[in-house]
UniProtKB/TrEMBL annotation:
It is a multi-pass membrane protein. Coiled coil: none annotated. Na(+) is not transported, but it plays an essential structural role and its presence is essential for fluoride channel function. It comes from Teichococcus aerophilus. The gene is fluC. This is Fluoride-specific ion channel FluC. InterPro entries: FluC. The chain crosses the membrane at residues 43-61, 73-97, 103-124.
Amino acid sequence: MNPFAPSLIALVALGGATGSVLRYAAGLWCAHWFGTALPWGTLAVNVIGSAVIGLLGGLILGGLQLSPEMRVFLITGILGGFTTFSAFSLDVGTLFLRSPALGAGYLALTLVGGLGAFALTFALGRTLMH
C-alpha cells in the first residue's frame, strides 16, 4: 500500500486530532488537580503514551495482527498527537531557566517514568500474547 495514500493520510489526521484533544484534556485535568508548579500534564501524557506504545509494541511482536491502517491510526495518529516530546523539551528548558535542579529533576522523572512504563507494558504485551 502506498504510504501516501489519501486513506492513510486521513487516518493519521483523524488519529492526530483525537490524540491532540486527549492531550489538551489531560493537561487541563492535571493542572486542575495538581496545580501548575510543574508541567504535570506533559509528564502524564509522556508516561501514558510510553506505556501505551510499549503495550502495543509488545502485543505486535507477540503476534497481534494489526492492519497497516490500524497501526498508522493508533501509533502515528493518536499517540503522535497525544505525546508531547516537543512540549516536554520546552518545559525542561523553561524549568532549567527557573532552577537547574528543578529542570534536571523533571527531566529525570519523565525519562525514568516513560522508559519504565514502556519496559513494563512492553513485557506485559508480549506475555499476554503467549
